[in-house]
Structure formats: structure tokens, C-alpha cells
Design a protein that fits this description.
Helices cover 76% and strands 3% of the residues. The chain contains four helices and two strands; from the N terminus they run ββαααα. The chain is elongated. α1 packs antiparallel against α2 and α2 crosses α4.
Length: 126
């Protein structure tokens, strides 16, 4: 997947990687939701928001990812863009997973149909 035009290796079909995704995106959401926008100066809000995003990216992709990705800057717009790229990649993988599940279900239905017909035919012979 590409995030901020950088290729990052991540497999949304891997249970261990998805566990990281769930853990770190949830932590990030909690941190951002707790930010008291009214009582923070703009630079304080940006710094706290970006730190939450950086921790999320480092947790999911490995320590140092955020420094490489954001080049040491805490830029609100850049962090939002990176997160949007990540969410878009997740949506694309979810669509692929959904299509795979539909294919598997179709195959299972076909197998069950064949099995049921054969079983009914065998029972009728008894």
C-alpha cells in the first residue's frame, strides 16, 4: 500500500497484523477524542494530534516509521493525509476480503448442493 507516496508493506489478511491495526488505531482514536480543543492552543492541539498519529503508525508498521514518513515534522495536514491513505487502503482490502468470502460461500453452497442431492438420491434407493 502507499501512504504519502511511500510504499509500506502491510497485510490486512494477516491476523497478527490486524491485531496491531485494531490496537493502535483504537489507542489513537481514544487519544484524539480526549483532546480538549477549546482549552488548547492550536500548536498544542497539532502536536498532540500528530503524536497520536505517529504512535499509531509506529505501532502498526514498526518503530521509526513515522519519522521516515513525516520527516520529523508534526504537520496536521500531513498526518490527516497519511491516515486517510491508510483508511483507503483498508477499505480496498475489505472489498477484496468481501469478494473472497463471497467466492468461498458460492463454492461451499455448490458443494452442499451436490452433497444434498447425492444424499437424497442415496436415501431414496434404500
Amino acid at each position: 500500500m502507499k501512504i504519502l507516496e511511500k510504499e509500506i508493506d502491510f497485510d490486512f489478511f494477516d491476523a497478527d497484523e490486524m491485531e496491531k491495526w485494531d490496537k493502535y488505531t483504537e489507542e489513537m482514536k481514544k487519544t484524539i477524542n480526549k483532546l480538549d480543543v477549546k482549552n488548547l492552543k492550536q500548536y498544542e492541539f497539532i502536536r498532540k494530534f500528530c503524536t497520536a498519529v505517529e504512535k499509531c503508525f509506529d505501532g502498526i508498521f514498526g518503530e521509526g516509521t513515522s519519522k521516515e514518513m513525516f520527516k520529523g515534522k508534526q504537520n496536521f495536514k500531513l498526518c490527516v493525509k497519511a491516515y486517510k491513505d491508510l483508511v483507503q487502503a483498508r477499505k480496498e482490502q475489505d472489498n477484496e476480503l468481501s469478494n473472497e468470502m463471497k467466492d468461498i460461500q458460492k463454492e461451499l453452497d455448490e458443494i452442499n448442493k451436490d452433497y444434498s442431492v447425492n444424499r437424497a438420491t442415496r436415501r431414496a434407493r434404500k
